[in-house]
Amino acid sequence: MDDRTLILFDKDGNEIVTKILFTYHSDEFNNDYVVFYNEKINEISAACYNPNDGDKGELSEVKTEEEWKMLEEILNDYAENNQGCPGCGGCEGSCGSCECDCEEDCEGCN
Question: Distances in Å between the alpha carbon of 67 and those of 10, 56, 70, 86?
Fold first, then answer.
């Protein structure tokens, strides 16, 4: 696993491996966010985190609709700058570390 891997656990304790797309700090909401991609179910999500919690790595839910709208706008900018594909980040499989062909494996590719 690389430093862009985020491992989460569901309510039953099952491990969910995700890829960190980016982190973001909002002065407006005074929060730090991590936006991540679950390749297995082709889903992007986000959570709040505390960058100063040491090794705890505790995440909390994004609480307001305004925060989600802000994150959605930032994600749209991210997708435009990374050729629209969260699965390959725009590399179209050339990085060698993903299996995305940017056509069949990913919904929402350019």
Answer: 23, 23, 5, 20
pLDDT digits (tens, 9 = 90+) for 64-88: 999 999 999 998 888 877 754 555 5
| Eight-class DSSP state of 85 | -
> What is the dihedral angle through the alpha carbons of 20, 61, 44, 36, rounded to the nearest 10 degrees?
0
Reduced to 3 states, what is the DSSP secondary structure of residue 33? strand
| CA neighbor of 45 nearest in space, from 65, 63, 20 | 20
CA 44 remoteness from chain centre: 6
Please return the burial class of 66, using the count of CB atoms within 10 Å of its CB with bins 0-12, 13-18 and 19+: exposed
